[in-house]
Amino acid sequence: MYVTRPLSLYTKSPDLLSEKPPEGPSSGYLVVQDDESMIPTCFGLSKSLSIKEFPLPSNRIISFGYVDTEDEVFAIPVIDQPLSANRYYLIKAHQKHKGEAYACSKDEDKGISCGRSYIQDKKPRPLDPEDIYQQFEFSTATTCSNKKGFSAKSIASDGYLPKFIRTKSPLLIQRSFRTSKDFIQLEAHGLNSSLRGQLPDFNFPLSRESSLTVCVGTWLCPFVFVHEVKLEDPVKNSVYYSMSLEQRWQRIYTHDASHSLGNKVMVDVVVPTHVVALYGKDAVIDETKSDPKVTWFTPMGSSGEQFGVGLNHLIIERMVWEQKRVGWASRKERELRVVREEEYGGIGWWARFGCYVLVERFVVRRMDGSLVLTCDFMHTHEIKTKWE
C-alpha cells in the first residue's frame, strides 16, 4: 500500500529520500513526476524526456536508452524500502508479457552454444513482491562523454540482469516517447491517525441505519497486487487502484418500547466479524483457487471464472494488521454474538432503542472511480447506543 509524493518535493529536499516507508508492513512511496519537476528544453517550449536523477517516477512509462519500445516499463519501488535504496520492480508496459514483471536469470538458466555458456533471459512473469530475482537496484554512473547515466544490478547475488539493462555502458533513462500519459491521477496520503481516533459523529437520528461515512486513509495499490478476472487489460484500464479506509457507525439492533421492558433492553444479536463484497455483491473466498500468494474472492452465486478478484497476500495481511492495531480481534469464526444489557438513563419515557457498532471499511476502486471490492471489519469492542 503506497503513499504518493511529488517528484519536485525530493528535488527540493533530497534528504527526504532516506525516510523510512510509512508505518505498517508492505508500505512504500510512489513518486509522481509533476510539471514542476520536468526538465525544460527548447528554450522552455517543451519538457525533456530525459531522467537525470533518482527517484524514478512511477506515474510514467519509462525506457532505458534507445532500446526497443517493447522493453518500456513501469518502475514501482520495492515495498518496505526507503526511496534512497533505489530498488524497483520493473513491469513490462507493452506487447507480449504485458503487465508482468522482469526477473533475473540464474546460473542454471544458462544455455550452451558452440561449447560456451551464455546468459538466457528469463521471461517476464507475474510479480511476486518478495522474490528478490524480480527486484533491481539502480545507481548513478557517468558516460564516456561525461553525461549522467545509470547502472543496474540484481538484488540476488547469483542473478543475471535482463538483456535490456545488462550493459557495460551507463544506461540512459527517459520517459516514453510514445505516450506522455500520467497513470496516477489521485493523491494518496496514507492514514490520518488523528481523524481515525476521533471516530465518526454519533449525532444522527435513530431512523438511520448508519452514520455518515468518514474517510480516514488513502493509498494506491499497483495492479500487480490486485487481480481482476474481468479486466482484460489492466495496463490500459487501471495501472493503479485506489484504496481508502472509511469509518461509520452501523446499526445492529433496534427495539421499540413496551411496558414489559421498563427502562432496560437486552441486546442479543449475531454479527459477522468481517464482510467482503465484489462490485457491490456479497462475496466469499474462492476455495477452488490454491495460490498461496493470492487470496481469490468470488461473488455469491456467481462464477469466479468471470467475476473473481484476487488480492496479493501482502495486501490482506496489511489490512488485517491495520485493523488489529485498533482492537479488532481476528477469529476463525465468521460471526460473533453480542450480548449486553442497556439501561435507559434519560428523563421521561423512551420510544425506541438502537445499538450501533463501529465498522471500518477498506474500499478498492479503479482509477476511473468504479468500485471493485469492499471489506468491512466489525469492531464489536466499539459499541454505542441511542434512545429516542
Explain this structure to me?
The chain is mainly β and 388 residues long. It has two domains: 2-175, no CATH class; 190-387, no CATH class. It has five helices and 25 strands. The strands form seven sheets. It has a ten-stranded antiparallel beta sheet. A four-stranded antiparallel beta sheet has the order 7-8-11-12, with no helix packed on it. It starts with a strand and ends with a strand. The mean pLDDT is 91. Pfam families: DUF1262. InterPro entries: DUF1262.
* Residue-averaged pLDDT: 91
What topology, given as strand order, has the largest sheet?
14-15-17-24-25-19-20-21-22-16
User: What distance separates the N and C termini?
Assistant: 42 Å
Supply the number of helical segments: 5
Structural Rg = 26 Å
Q: Can you tell me the residue ranges where pLDDT is under 50 for at least 5 consecutive residues?
A: none
How many domains, in number, for the residues?
2
Helices and strands, in order, run as EHEEEEEEEEEEEEEHEEHEEEEEHEHEEE
Characterize the largest beta sheet: strand count, sense, and whether it forms a barrel: 10 strands, antiparallel
How would you sum up the global shape? elongated
**Class by helix and strand content?**
mainly beta
Please count the beta strands (DSSP E, at least 2 residues each).
Answer: 25
